[in-house]
Amino acid sequence: MTSVLITIGRGTGTPIKQQLYDQIRKKIIKGELAFGDKLPSSRELADELHISRNLIVEVYEQLVSEGYLETKAGSGTYVAKGAYLERSFDSDEYSVFGEHLVAEEDVIDFRSGIPALDMFPRKTWGFIARRVYRDAPPEVFGYRHPEGEFILRHTLSQYLSRTRGVKCHPDQLIITSGATQAFGLIARLLGSRNSEVVIEDPVTHEIQTIFSSAGFRFHPVPVDDYGMKTEHISAQNPAFIFVTPSHQFPLGGVLTIQRRIQLIHFARQTGCYIVEDDYDSEFRYHGTPVSCMQGLDPERVVYIGTFSKILSPALRLGYLILPPDLTKKCRDLKWFSDLHSSTFEQLVLAQFMKEGHLEKHISKMKKIYRKRREKLIDCLNKRFSNKVSIHGDSTGLHLVAEFKGITFSDETMRNIDAHRVKVYPVELHTIQKSAHSNKIILGYGNLGLEQIEEGIARLESVLKYSY
Ligand SMILES: Cc1ncc(COP(=O)(O)O)c(C=O)c1O
Q: Domain named HTH gntR-type: which ranges (predicted)?
């Protein structure tokens, strides 16, 4: 007979029967109890562990019914054949907040697009969530419509009309799982017309991947400090034009009104749509807020927004605003994709907005990001003086630093990494390579002032040998 080495913990919150079951099952799966091993009788194990024999009988019966154990009449209980799994996943050894999810210690990461994660309004959100879960009628716990909750679409359309100049009816809005899902839906929605997309160059690598894996070819258009250089468009009949007009990603330019109008003329003439990604324009530090393009021509512009930057990427809440003729098909695509986004996150967000917390949060965060941005600019100027020039710092959570005489080659990047600081070359996001090899993207949303200072000092300690 095999010793099973079970330990029962009292007062752990886990019932004794469950502990017993888990431990025997785990030992069998991991091979510590092997095929043919005989288990102690229920009486022996009950004596050894000082627990009721009935509990052991119940656990053995359960494990027999699941195929881990077998009984041989008159002989006892044995480990059954085929219940061992090599390299089995042991959930106890993994924490939900496991190491792979925790930031590397002492690495200062200037990754763009991450808001201040420690400033999420947990208390208010939690308070509203408790209320929403308590008061929601039963049907809210069931399957819902693909376009999302009316109360959120209604609140959002009013908010966007007030703050971004969007013109839409709530029925034109579809709540998505972040802007990322919206990009995928758009690719499927507009893909059948033509396989070419007019796109800013650079543009996020992720967006390139989504569109290229949907079969699109790119007609890349270079970008300057005023966004897409529209005079470079020579495509004849594209499926759509993709732009980030309020804060070009990554270079940060704001598309001028002249270029916006040129794009709209082009779209009207060729019958294509403009896809406007308005991902972080709520945080504008100079001048008046820039209105969106959608308000200029709601029939031609598909508008995409997200709550990832103003609240948290973990919510996975974004939205699409469509010209009315595309709405029905896009709702169907959303339904094929995942039925609908999480109802409760939507309801909590709607309430959060209706009670004015979103605008309060944005205004509070804007002050914090403004200080971080100023600190970053100040450190760059102090450390690199006339060797650095800064682009696209008027809005959002990142800026671009251009260095005279430096190329962010693989080797330079390895050296920077070795100094425990992470920065991101613009070249990661270019389609036509090498036009921006002296530029890096520096996200500051999730870094404190001291980290910014230390991060730029580390960067200088590497780059001072490169020019
Ligand atoms: C240009 C751009 N658009 C949109 C997003 C937002 O994506 P999501 O809403 O899926 O988090 C990002 C994320 O970094 C981005 O860089």
A: 14-82
